Amino acid sequence: MTRRRQQSGQNNPTNRRDGFVRIISGRWRGRKLPVHDVEGLRPTTDRVKETVFNWLAQDIIDANCLDLFTGSGSLGFEALSRGAKHVTMLELDKKAAEQLEKNRLTLGVDNATVRNTDSLTFLKQPGTPFDVIFIDPPFRKDLMQEVITLLEQNHWLAPHAVIYIEAEKELGELDIPPHWHLHREKTAGQVCYRLFEREDA
Questions:
Q1: Which of 24-28, 36-40, 126-130, 187-191 has the lowest average pLDDT?
Q2: CA nearest to 96, candidates 121, 71, 69
């Protein structure tokens, strides 16, 4: 979630609070976490996040989560607040990754790992299966399809993993694996977000 499109309404200061993200439920409900000012950063809005975690209510407890293109950490820290077993956060921008680590320490979190790395490079390694995966790459960079392919190809997904995808509304059709079943889908402004449930291939 590091570099986002400039023209989106999500980047309009009137449409989002700059400078922090808010945890909306769970252990740290209401807690505000600082966000490093990276050009084009578009944290997942509270409205979208609340919907997504309602979808994930039965899946997030004790889940091992992978947060790709973490950016602000909005999704990863929300997952931790709601009882995830562990969250691995991947963020390419050095300053943003440093802020994520500061926020981790501020919350006293010992079940999260922040890695200053490129998500695609990370996924090209042999994988360790995760239960919940958050995919919110920079918009209009044609990254989504490669991420989906690498997740399957390198065995990053548990047999019954759930996969959250957040993308620009106009994104073309993706080649979704046949054993990924669309569970929920919604649109908010210029953003389309979906939750897939995976069956063991």
A1: 36-40
A2: 71
What is the spatial distance between Cα 185 and Cα 94, in angstroms, rounded to a whole number?
32
The reported pLDDT for the residue numbered 162 is: 98
Q: Could you give the percent of the chain with pLDDT greater than 90?
A: 74
CB 148 within 8 A of CB 177: yes
Q: Which of 100, 84, 67, 68 is nearest to 26 (CA)?
A: 84
CA distances from 175 to 127, 149, 151, 158, 179 (A): 21, 9, 13, 20, 12
Q: Which of 114, 113, 127, 135 is nearest to 180 (CA)?
A: 135
Q: Residue 189 pLDDT more than 70?
A: yes
The vertex-180 CA angle with 89 and 160, nearest 5°, equals: 65
Q: Is 184 helix (H, G, I), strand (E, B) or coil?
A: strand
pLDDT of residue 13: 35
Distance CA 52, CA 131 (A): 15
Query: Are the CB atoms for 56 and 164 separated by under 8 Å?
Result: yes
Strands in the chain per DSSP E: 20-22, 32-34, 64-68, 86-90, 112-115, 130-135, 157-168, 180-188, 191-198
Rounded to the nearest 5 degrees, what angle is found at the Cα of 123, between the Cα atoms of 96 and 147?
90
Which tens digits make up the pLDDT trace of 165-181? 998 887 778 899 999 99
